[in-house]
């Protein structure tokens, strides 16, 4: 049985190590996971209550159109219901865009260190990925514009960028969108939108009326704390949403996910509190990195990427042994780890473990 030739050898996405595996492997009772940019404070109590209330309906298929959730989200965002599509996480929307628009040989442009799912889905469809180097961890928008050709179908901009955490400012983004040809789709991935507090950052949803080729992605996995339920969404002009919907599988989001997302949207006080706590945690870690003499990228999501000055894999392994899971393996940043902003207590445990690991590696004395 032969697969498509172009998918042979494609890398398989590797998620952060699960807590249970680390406990078993290292004989630990307590493990802190700061590897997958999950919300350390969990989901809203109202979302948990909505899940509980939905348990008696597990024998029923979900609403394939997610009509109630669509109406709630449309009201929250100030858009029409036909501007929205839901997916099993926003990464399914990425896969659906690739399925709907890429033909073999089409070109797609992205940063050289960004969310890997853009490239993997382009590879699956036989498209050619053009990777433009980041500049100081930030998208080089001029460099991306320079790589547009007649074969370019989609440009991906992750804002804040994963894994570096940097942002593209509003003025830079609109200047870029002004220069992109109308026939080229720009996918603006705002998975960490709700965490950003920088006033120069722009809300991609507000740009949709001005740019008909724009698609904005967001998710309930991050600040809303619903990662286990896998629900994200895309927002775009109705004609684009219709095309993406035509390649979407039925019942791709569950009853539990839809109910929890509706309740989570209704608790914006909880979202604001998570944003406040995240900002405080970010300041905490940045201060500790400065004390340790470590450089990090400007961070605007719920994670930060820091240079540990030795092999990131070595520090990753030492941290595992101390019960802290972070992320390493960024191909262009071999001495950097990415760490999720945890609670104040989790951050302190991480810093103590990191300082000990750096001393073991001779970085600190």
UniProtKB/TrEMBL annotation:
<dbReference type="InterPro" id="IPR015424">
    <property type="entry name" value="PyrdxlP-dep_Trfase"/>
</dbReference>
<protein>
    <recommendedName>
        <fullName>Histidinol-phosphate aminotransferase</fullName>
        <ecNumber>2.6.1.9</ecNumber>
    </recommendedName>
</protein>
<dbReference type="InterPro" id="IPR015422">
    <property type="entry name" value="PyrdxlP-dep_Trfase_small"/>
</dbReference>
<comment type="similarity">
    <text>Belongs to the class-II pyridoxal-phosphate-dependent aminotransferase family. Histidinol-phosphate aminotransferase subfamily.</text>
</comment>
<feature type="modified residue" description="N6-(pyridoxal phosphate)lysine">
    <location>
        <position position="222"/>
    </location>
</feature>
<keyword id="KW-0368">Histidine biosynthesis</keyword>
<dbReference type="InterPro" id="IPR050106">
    <property type="entry name" value="HistidinolP_aminotransfase"/>
</dbReference>
<dbReference type="GO" id="GO:0030170">
    <property type="term" value="F:pyridoxal phosphate binding"/>
</dbReference>
<feature type="domain" description="Aminotransferase class I/classII large">
    <location>
        <begin position="30"/>
        <end position="354"/>
    </location>
</feature>
<keyword id="KW-0032">Aminotransferase</keyword>
<dbReference type="InterPro" id="IPR015421">
    <property type="entry name" value="PyrdxlP-dep_Trfase_major"/>
</dbReference>
<dbReference type="InterPro" id="IPR004839">
    <property type="entry name" value="Aminotransferase_I/II_large"/>
</dbReference>
<dbReference type="GO" id="GO:0000105">
    <property type="term" value="P:L-histidine biosynthetic process"/>
</dbReference>
<dbReference type="InterPro" id="IPR005861">
    <property type="entry name" value="HisP_aminotrans"/>
</dbReference>
<keyword id="KW-0663">Pyridoxal phosphate</keyword>
<comment type="pathway">
    <text>Amino-acid biosynthesis; L-histidine biosynthesis; L-histidine from 5-phospho-alpha-D-ribose 1-diphosphate: step 7/9.</text>
</comment>
<dbReference type="Pfam" id="PF00155">
    <property type="entry name" value="Aminotran_1_2"/>
</dbReference>
<dbReference type="GO" id="GO:0004400">
    <property type="term" value="F:histidinol-phosphate transaminase activity"/>
</dbReference>
<keyword id="KW-0808">Transferase</keyword>
<comment type="subunit">
    <text>Homodimer.</text>
</comment>
<keyword id="KW-0028">Amino-acid biosynthesis</keyword>
């Amino acid at each position: 049985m032969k697969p498509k030739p172009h998918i042979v050898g494609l890398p398989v996405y590797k998620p952060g190590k699960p807590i249970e595996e680390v406990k078993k492997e290292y004989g630990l009772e307590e493990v802190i996971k700061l590897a997958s940019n999950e919300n350390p404070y969990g989901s809203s109590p109202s979302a948990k209550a909505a899940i509980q209330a939905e348990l008696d309906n597990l024998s029923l298929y979900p609403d394939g159109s997610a009509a109630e959730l669509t109406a709630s989200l449309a009201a929250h965002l100030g858009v029409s219901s036909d501007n929205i599509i839901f997916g099993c996480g926003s990464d399914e929307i990425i896969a659906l865009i690739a399925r709907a628009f890429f033909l073999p040989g089409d070109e797609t442009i992205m940063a050289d260190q960004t969310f890997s799912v853009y490239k993997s889905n382009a590879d699956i469809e036989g498209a050619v990925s053009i990777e433009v180097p980041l500049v100081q961890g930030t998208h080089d928008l001029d460099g991306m514009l320079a790589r547009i050709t007649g074969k370019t179908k989609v440009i991906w901009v992750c804002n804040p960028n994963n894994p570096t955490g940097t942002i593209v400012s509003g003025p830079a983004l609109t200047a870029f969108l002004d220069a992109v040809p109308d026939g080229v789709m720009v996918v603006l991935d705002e998975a960490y939108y709700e965490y950003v507090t920088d006033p120069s950052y722009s809300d991609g949803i507000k740009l949709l009326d001005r740019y008909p080729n724009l698609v904005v992605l967001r998710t309930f996995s991050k600040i809303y704390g619903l990662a286990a339920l896998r629900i994200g969404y895309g927002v775009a002009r109705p004609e684009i949403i219709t095309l993406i919907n035509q390649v979407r599988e039925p019942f791709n989001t569950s009853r539990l996910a839809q109910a929890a997302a509706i309740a989570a949207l209704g608790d914006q006080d909880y979202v604001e509190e998570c944003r406040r706590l995240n900002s405080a945690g970010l300041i905490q870690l940045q201060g500790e990195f400065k004390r340790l003499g470590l450089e990090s990228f400007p961070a605007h999501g719920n994670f930060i990427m820091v240079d540990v000055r030795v092999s990131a894999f070595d520090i990753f392994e030492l941290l595992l042994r101390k019960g802290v899971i972070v992320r390493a393996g960024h191909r262009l940043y071999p001495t950097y780890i990415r760490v999720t902003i945890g609670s104040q207590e989790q951050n302190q445990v991480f810093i103590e473990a990191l300082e000990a690991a750096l001393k073991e590696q001779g970085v600190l004395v």
